[in-house]
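Why this split exists: single-chain examples teach little about how molecules sit against one another. For that reason, every record in the complexes split bundles all components of an assembly together and asks for one structure covering all of them. Below is a record exactly as it appears in the raw files.
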Amino acid sequence: MKLKIAIQKSGRLYEDSIKLLKDCGIDVRNGMNKLKAEAENFPLEVFFLRDDDIPQYVADKVADIGIVGENVLYEKQKAVTVVEKLGFSKCRLAVGVGKDENYTGAQYLQGKTIATSYPVLVRKFLDDNNINAEIHEISGSVEIAPGIGLSDAIVDLVSSGSTLFMNGLKETETILKSEAVLVRNNELSEEKLAILSSLVFRMQAVKKAKNNKYILLNAPNDRLQEIIALLPGMKSPTVLPLAESGWSSVHSVLNENDFWNIIEQLKERGAQGILVIPIEKMIV
Ligand SMILES: Nc1ncnc2c1ncn2[C@@H]1O[C@H](COP(=O)(O)OP(=O)(O)OP(=O)(O)O)[C@@H](O)[C@H]1O
Ligand SMILES: O=P(O)(O)OC[C@H]1O[C@H](OP(=O)(O)OP(=O)(O)O)[C@H](O)[C@@H]1O
Ligand SMILES: [Mg+2]
């Protein structure tokens, strides 16, 4: 028995999806233009597909699970379940208008024409805001639409904003924040759920490790308690004596978000030789 996973064949989700599987200890080799591959050391069969088709394939059980952006997932409205947010391919679905337009709020869109590849999500946004506007659906190069007279505004994915900028547009309203998610079919067998659960366990260990760093430092013993108080560790920090008397080596795990703030405070309390090391897997 193998679990079948659908991932994007090529594009913005492909590399991070393959890397996530690899970080989970799962080797997938897809030769040039191969649309199917088997993992060598985990009961997983991989299908390489257009991302737009992934929700449908998972809903139809052609694939048991899939990796897809929330933007595509919610646009397609297929009956699948989100298992886990994956933390990559972060972007937002946003409204763009000409950079010199006087945009005062969503009501700006009243009576306007909007070009987008996301008609379902845009229609919902317009309805929620009681806006009457025409949606012009196009499948790509959406940012060019206002410049060639196809629409007054656009709704498309934005991350750095450089595509909008280069097309003389500015970002206004955010309709949806998106990242890659793992989805599953709603009716998997017990056996497949068991494989999925061990895959998700590995994914969570990888994700947790990515958000944390292993930290080592030398602390003067007379300030050890203050320094330890700043370092939560997984249980509590490890403290080992240094060869030089009066000093200890302290080992701990730090969340990336707290990182710079705590480093400053550690230095102020006399910590020296601070090393910060990436963690590969983290199981709590
Ligand atoms: N600029 C971006 N920054 C971060 N993530 C993005 C960005 N653009 C798209 N994404 C995410 O990556 C997904 C895939 O984007 P991509 O551009 O590869 O799609 P595509 O051209 O529709 O690919 P396909 O050929 O598979 O249909 C998007 O649905 C979105 O979730
Ligand atoms: O805000 P930015 O960082 O400029 O990113 C936004 C752009 O990225 C995506 O397109 P992509 O580059 O994936 O090309 P595509 O339209 O061919 O899929 C998206 O459709 C935007 O056009
Ligand atoms: Mg696509």
